[in-house]
Amino acid sequence: MNFEHFFPVWDQLNATQKSRIQDSLIERQIKKGTMIHNGSMDCTGLLLVRSGQLRAYIRSDEGREITLYRLFDRDMCLFSASCIMRSIQFDVAIEAEKDTDLWIIPPEVYKTIMEESAAVANYTNELMASRFSDVMWLIEQIMWKSFDKRLAAFLLEEAAIEESSRLHLTHEAIGSHLGNPREVVTRMLRYFQDEGMVKLSRGMIEITNEEKLRQMV
Amino acid sequence: MNFEHFFPVWDQLNATQKSRIQDSLIERQIKKGTMIHNGSMDCTGLLLVRSGQLRAYIRSDEGREITLYRLFDRDMCLFSASCIMRSIQFDVAIEAEKDTDLWIIPPEVYKTIMEESAAVANYTNELMASRFSDVMWLIEQIMWKSFDKRLAAFLLEEAAIEESSRLHLTHEAIGSHLGNPREVVTRMLRYFQDEGMVKLSRGMIEITNEEKLRQMV
């Protein structure tokens, strides 16, 4: 499986555009835990995930974090190439949550093609709308949902991604996903444990009553 | 001043596209306080503000609100036409905060032109990126800024928009902008008054020490 099978508008490119991408494409194997893109530091390029898992997040000046969205196989990351649009006035950081194989399209190559191809520009529009929807969902969660519901939803989502009820996650890491201090996470997890929904042990959280957790959400 | 002077990519449309827009364009005068677009209810079309002021916001199931961004003269509203992109999976409500003159471009007309014109598609991309930046700013405010700072910033922004230090705003309305209950707003405003930054009277807030308010932010 090559790049052309992963890039949805490949067939709508002309020969010149295709070769421009092929000649500049960078293939990378990224180790779990690696920071791929660090906010305003650079304009890395567009990332197309072949396999693996990325996390896009923002950080406060004090180092607090909140996860905006995840990227999985076949997902494309636009905001690691924010220099392609002047109206992108914010920074996201991106790290590999699992070992990840990806392609990098250099920003200037993509920008040129997007400017001449309505198909690529519209594909980019859909990409951005999709991330916008993720972020709007996040705002609604932060604004209107209490922390117990958000934490329950997060644990269920993790279990679905990992296809396991045993989650190797520190309370610190959960705090970074949800934008809350570790102590708040620990307190709520202990309450979940008292209620028989999870079992806590060192570096691990086991979901023991998925049904009850689901009712919370 | 006509539509063509307000629509930035007008000169990049061909004759057919121009007449398609001209033939379908709707001009409207909207009274202050009118709800123009109500979330998923409908696909109103793209709104281009000739003069006036619109507010885009979201609402919880319980009726709480938070302002996402404002639209002023020459701004265009995309999310009142969310049916033009399948990846827009969220609803915003839009109301006129002042008497507003605007044009409505029917969604199907805009969609067709966007699909064939890279210029229009890229303009739409910039529009969306711009709103995305507003919303990312909002998330950072909600997540990392305390309410006193957010309220101070809001009062200063209102004073700049109204070009007046006397703001005709109820505590309820401020709560709807910032996503907080009225009581929380009232309590903080009283604290601001005790500190000499504002003077409260019925339906009005007067900024009495702008410098001190600015230092808070």
Structural notes for this entry:
The structure is a homodimer of 217-residue chains. Chain A has 217 residues and is α+β, with helices and mostly antiparallel strands. Chain A is 44% helix and 23% strand. The first copy, chain A, is built from eight helices and eleven strands. The first copy, chain A, has helices spanning 3-6, 15-24, 107-116, 118-144, 147-162, 171-178, 182-194, 210-216, and strands at residues 26-30, 35-38, 46-51, 54-59, 65-71, 76-77, 93-96, 100-105, 166-167, 198-201, 204-207. In chain A, the strands form three sheets. The first copy, chain A, has a four-stranded antiparallel β-sheet with strand order 1-8-3-6. Chain A has a four-stranded antiparallel β-sheet with strand order 2-7-4-5. Chain A has a three-stranded antiparallel β-sheet with strand order 9-11-10. In chain A, strand 10 and strand 11 form a beta hairpin. In chain A, helix 3 crosses helix 4, helix 5 (147-162) packs across helix 8 (210-216) and helix 6 packs across helix 7. The longest helix of chain A has 27 residues, at 118-144. The N and C termini of chain A lie far apart (39 Å). The relative contact order of chain A is 0.13. The model of chain A has no long low-confidence stretch (mean pLDDT 94). Chains A and B meet through helix 3 and helix 4 of A and helix 3 and helix 4 of B.
